[in-house]
């Protein structure tokens, strides 16, 4: 069967660098192909060439006459359209079924009457998807189709694409999305493409094997060059005329070695580490928040302990970001209480990349415009050195933000957030636009982070790999906590995010409802005295714990005095237990005092 779309020997150069150097793409009818590669490798550019929107410097593009193609860009242009319905239906050709566009809009949760410019990113993305899906084209080229989509919309899109006969070419950072839909994988690496006749689920193991074999071949080439150089130095005199061919061969080997394009260096991710927080990081008791008549968070209670990694999931508009802002003190609750524990330092990454000023340079973003150093994990580092950890070149330090791709902006914001000393890391949609290798490194960083993590994400695979519990927005402002990641939550609920509300109390709640206002407690003399005394007790116990830990760090203590080692270990356990009790009591009394003082000023 002849391919519907073919790209052969595609060459595209920016400046002196070949972005695409012999890249190829072949799409047959009904094919399910995912296009993968690092940020900046040219995936989106290759897709635009396939769509006929970019003219390459060299190579050929062939498209079957009469076949139809639809292309979804990362940032669709709504210029000239008043409503989302107008925009979506503009993708239809004469003879296409207009009812399909209307039906897909309804399935996507849209009426079509939404005004362009007054809709969320998720609504705009769903309308853009309907525009390319409704015609049921022969070939669908989709560039990051899950960006801005919540979990219900991602599951809807998966179902629609799986039911279509169109050939698919997908670019996405969502591993689970790719694994479920792809049957073929095209890897764009250092300007060239390599094809795996299997889906994404098998890709990473295959890629690692390819890179390992490359390293073996590079080592063999290095050894051969070393042997030829030795011959040149010691054996060429007196045989000059007979061995010009061998010398030419050596020159060719050296050119081959110098022209080899290596894989770009790995991203190195480390977070700025602050002193430990207390054992209890956040305590919320029956916290509620409304905007107008809409209850966004209702009667929410939780105790977040040091080292917890909590994912927050749900549909767009369900209150995920509001909940995180309540828990971190950025928003006050309308009722109930939220209290941060002792010595909590917060660093965060939100999803609003518009906060990056387009004319700011990368260096100024990372240093705050002061000097040329960044302090990471207590060490001062030159900004260009720190930038290399996130795959930016030293020359980019003076480049403006406006020239960066979406993936590069994501890496820049990540670098800025992780340079801030913290023991509570708040990440709101951190995976958007990141390549798979960077996602792997971010996952490892979260696993190794000594503090506490709050993570809002629609990336199911990433949640499964990183979080210890999942807060699910069940609707009507109610959030329920489930042990484990996204898949564990689905197993416990019986369905994914589209399931009906589950009537279940969150773990770590604070027991029965608070007493009515008329029965509120008062601070007794004993309570007031405890409030004054507890900070000193906490500090003293922390110092005791530090001393005991220092003693146990002596590797020879157990061999010299096993009884002393056991006694010191027992004292440490008791001190840690006391510290937790002191902190819990202090938080409880502080919240009670705040409640009483608030009632007194009402």
Defining key terms:
602 residues; alpha/beta; Rossmann fold; Helix Hairpins; 3 domains; 6-stranded mixed beta sheet
Folded structure, characterized:
The protein has 602 residues and is α/β, with parallel strands linked by helices. It folds into three domains: 5-68 and 137-205, Rossmann fold (3-Layer(aba) Sandwich); 280-514, Rossmann fold, CATH 3.40.50; 518-601, Valyl-tRNA synthetase, C-terminal domain (Helix Hairpins). It has helices spanning 43-50, 84-89, 98-107, 121-133, 151-163, 175-181, 203-235, 244-259, 320-327, 362-367, 383-388, 406-418, 436-448, 460-466, 486-493, 525-552, 557-560, 562-601; strands at residues 5-14, 17-27, 32-36, 58-63, 69-72, 139-143, 167-171, 184-189, 192-196, 280-291, 294-305, 309-313, 335-340, 346-349, 373-376, 379-382, 424-428, 452-456, 469-475, 478-483. The strands form five sheets. Strands 5-6-7-3-8-9 form a six-stranded mixed sheet, with helices on both faces. A six-stranded mixed sheet has the order 14-17-18-12-19-20, sandwiched between helices. Strands 2-1-4 form a three-stranded antiparallel sheet, with helices on one face. α7 (203-235) runs antiparallel to α8 and α16 runs antiparallel to α18 (562-601). 36% of the residues are buried. Residues 236-242 and 499-520 have low confidence and may be disordered.
């Amino acid at each position: 069967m002849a391919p519907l779309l073919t790209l052969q020997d595609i060459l595209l150069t920016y400046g002196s660098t070949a972005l695409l150097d012999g890249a190829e793409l072949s799409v047959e009818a009904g094919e399910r192909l995912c296009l993968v590669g690092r940020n900046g490798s040219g995936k989106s550019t290759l897709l635009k060439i396939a769509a006929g929107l970019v003219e390459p410097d060299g190579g050929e593009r062939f498209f079957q006459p009469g076949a139809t193609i639809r292309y979804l860009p990362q940032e669709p242009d709504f210029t000239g359209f008043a409503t989302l319905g107008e925009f979506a239906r503009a993708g239809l050709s004469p003879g296409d079924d207009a009812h399909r566009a209307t039906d897909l809009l309804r399935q996507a949760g849209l009426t079509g009457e939404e005004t362009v410019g007054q809709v969320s990113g998720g609504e705009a993305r769903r309308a853009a998807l309907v525009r390319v899906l409704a015609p049921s084209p022969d070939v669908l080229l989709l560039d990051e189709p899950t960006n801005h989509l919540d979990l219900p919309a991602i599951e809807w899109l998966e179902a629609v694409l799986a039911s279509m006969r169109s050939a698919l070419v997908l670019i996405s950072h969502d591993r689970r999305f790719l694994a479920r839909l792809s049957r073929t994988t095209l890897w764009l690496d250092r300007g060239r493409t390599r094809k795996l006749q299997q889906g994404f689920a098998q890709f990473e193991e295959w890629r690692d094997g390819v890179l390992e074999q490359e390293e073996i071949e590079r080592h063999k080439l290095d050894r051969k060059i070393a042997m030829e150089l030795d011959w040149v130095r010691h054996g060429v005199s007196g045989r000059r005329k007979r061995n010009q061919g061998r010398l030419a061969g050596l020159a060719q080997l050296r050119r081959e070695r110098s022209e080899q394009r290596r894989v770009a260096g790995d991203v190195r991710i480390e977070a700025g580490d602050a002193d430990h927080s207390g054992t209890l990081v956040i305590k919320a008791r029956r916290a509620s928040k409304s905007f107008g008549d809409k209850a966004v968070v209702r009667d929410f209670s939780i105790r977040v302990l040091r080292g917890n990694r909590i994912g927050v999931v749900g549909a767009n508009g369900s209150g995920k970001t509001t909940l995180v802002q309540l828990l971190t003190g950025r928003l006050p609750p309308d009722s109930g209480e939220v209290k941060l524990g002792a010595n909590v330092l917060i660093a965060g990454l939100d999803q609003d990349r518009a906060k990056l000023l387009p004319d700011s340079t990368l260096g100024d973003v990372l240093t705050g415009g002061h000097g040329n150093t960044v302090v990471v994990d207590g060490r001062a580092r030159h900004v260009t050195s720190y930038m290399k950890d996130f795959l930016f070149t030293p020359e980019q330090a003076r480049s403006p933000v406006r020239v960066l791709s979406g993936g590069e902006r994501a890496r820049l914001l990540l670098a800025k957030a992780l340079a801030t000393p913290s023991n509570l890391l708040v990440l709101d949609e951190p995976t958007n636009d990141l390549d798979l290798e960077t996602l792997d490194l971010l996952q490892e960083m979260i696993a190794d982070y000594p503090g506490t993590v709050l993570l809002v994400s629609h990336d199911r695979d990433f949640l499964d790999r990183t979080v210890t519990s999942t807060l699910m927005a069940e609707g009507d402002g109610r959030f329920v906590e489930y042990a484990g990641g996204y898949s564990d939550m689905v197993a416990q609920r019986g369905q994914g995010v589209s399931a009906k509300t589950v009537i279940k109390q969150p773990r770590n709640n604070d027991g029965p409802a608070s007493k009515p206002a008329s029965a509120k407690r008062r601070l007794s003399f004993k309570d007031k005295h405890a409030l004054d005394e507890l900070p000193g007790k906490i500090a003293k116990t922390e110092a005791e714990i530090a001393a005991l830990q220092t003693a146990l760090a002596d590797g020879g203590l157990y061999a010299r005095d096993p009884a002393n080692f056991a006694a010191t270990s027992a004292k440490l356990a008791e001190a840690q237990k006391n510290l937790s009790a002191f902190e819990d009591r202090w938080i409880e009394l502080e919240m009670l005092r705040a409640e009483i003082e608030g009632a007194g000023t009402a």
